[in-house]
Amino acid sequence: MNPPRIPRGPAVVLAVVTSATLYAIFYSHFQQVRDKAVMRAGVERDKERMRLKKRRQGGETEGEGGAR
Asked: For the chain, how big is the Rg over CA atoms in Å?
C-alpha cells in the first residue's frame, strides 16, 4: 500500500513556482527594510543640515550685532 505519487512534471513546476514566490516575498521584504533605512538616514541628514543652518544663522546675527 504505497501512497499515490505525484507525476514528476507537475511536481517540478510546483517546486519552481513555490521557490519563485518565496524569493519574491523575501526580496520585497528586504528591499522595503533597506529603503526604510535609506529614507531614515535622509531624514537624519536633513535634520542635521537644518540644525547647522539654524546654528549658523543664529551665530551670524549675534556676531554682527556685537560688531556694531
From this structure: 29
